[in-house]
Design brief:
The chain is mainly beta and 187 residues long. It is built from three helices and eleven strands; from the N terminus they run ααβββββββαββββ. β9 and β10 form a beta hairpin. 34% of the residues are buried.
Length: 187
Amino acid sequence: MSGGLNSAFLTAMRGNATQIPYLRNNIFASQPQINAAGGQRIVNLSASISGIEVRTAPTNRSTFSNAFNAWWLPNNQNAAAAITVGTVGADIIFTPALTGCILEINGNTITHHDGNSPTRIAAALLQLGGAGVVGQRRWDNDGIGAGFYASFVVGVRRNGAWQFYQQSYNYNQVGQGILPAVQVTQI
């Protein structure tokens, strides 16, 4: 089953104009199950009651069908975690839930400023990202709609350039047998 989730995700993320519809119809758990430092990881997607979970896979890929390499940008409490993704290696990046945090995009360096990080104030002054915005920019939860809480960010490198997408949803609706209201935007 996870092979199907992995394959469908990668096909949508690498497709033309398929990222937003995919993220509207496939809820990701608010907290990916990756307990690791930042960097490239072998990941596997699995289904759970709270949505699709992003998990690290064993180093032996044969354990999971279609496990794939992805960048992981962790949250370091009261600090700012950063990774430089460069132009080679994995072409997918995941973040944990952003709940009061700020995501800063500056070229190939992506920084996750924790809500209590001393660098968060300076990051909050950066230009707000959105479709078509290039250069150093930020994204945070302040712009999402009322009733939306859990936010997840995924990035994909297409044709050498990184594109980022944010998914927010009403966490109270998860697991009730209905598709929660979902807000998806390009950063």
